[in-house]
Specification:
3-stranded antiparallel sheet; alpha+beta; extended
Length: 151
C-alpha cells in the first residue's frame, strides 16, 4: 500500500504552546538550526529559514498551510476556481494560448507554476491600468482627497 504525507498543515492539530515556542524560536535574532540526537547542528539556509518563519507565523495566527509543488496539475475547474473566474473563461484562455496546458487523455491540465505566472502577469497589468487611470484623474484635477464617503 502506498501512503503519502498530507500536504495540509492544520494548526488545530498542534498544541498551542508548541506553536508559540516554534514561533518564538524563529523570532529570535540569528538563525534557527536543526540539531540531531547526537548534537550535530545544521544551519538552515536563509531562503528556507524565511519560508519556515512565514509558515510558523501563519500557523500561530490559526491559518492552515497547504504546500504544493510547482508542477502540481490542476483540472480546468480547479484552475478556474484558483484564479477566480469561470471554467469557460479559463478554457478560452487555454485555447487562445494565453495560458499553457497539456492534455491527459481528452482532459486539459494546468500546472500550478503556470497558474502562478499567469496570476502575477494579470495582476501586474491590472495594477498598471489602475495606476494610469489614477494618474489621469489626478492630472485632470478630479481627485478630491478630502472626500470621506459619508457625506
Amino acid at each position: 500500500m502506498i501512503t503519502s504525507q498530507p500536504n495540509r498543515l492544520d494548526p488545530s492539530t498542534i498544541d498551542r504552546e508548541e506553536l508559540d515556542k516554534v514561533f518564538a524560536a524563529f523570532s529570535q535574532p540569528g538563525h534557527v538550526a536543526f540539531v540531531d540526537k547526537e548534537g550535530n547542528r545544521t544551519e538552515i539556509p536563509e531562503p528556507i529559514y524565511h519560508h519556515l518563519m512565514r509558515i510558523a507565523r501563519m500557523m500561530q495566527q490559526g491559518q492552515a498551510i497547504v504546500m504544493l509543488p510547482e508542477n502540481e496539475t490542476f483540472t480546468t475547474k480547479a484552475a478556474a476556481n484558483y484564479l477566480g473566474m469561470s471554467r469557460q473563461f479559463l478554457v478560452n484562455l487555454l485555447e487562445n494560448g494565453d495560458l499553457p496546458f497539456h492534455k491527459v487523455g481528452s482532459h486539459r491540465r494546468v500546472t500550478f507554476k503556470d497558474l502562478l505566472a499567469y496570476e502575477k502577469e494579470r495582476d501586474s497589468k491590472r495594477r498598471g491600468r489602475l495606476d494610469a487611470l489614477s494618474e489621469k484623474i489626478d492630472e485632470a484635477g478630479l481627485y478630491d482627497a478630502s472626500y470621506r464617503g459619508d457625506q
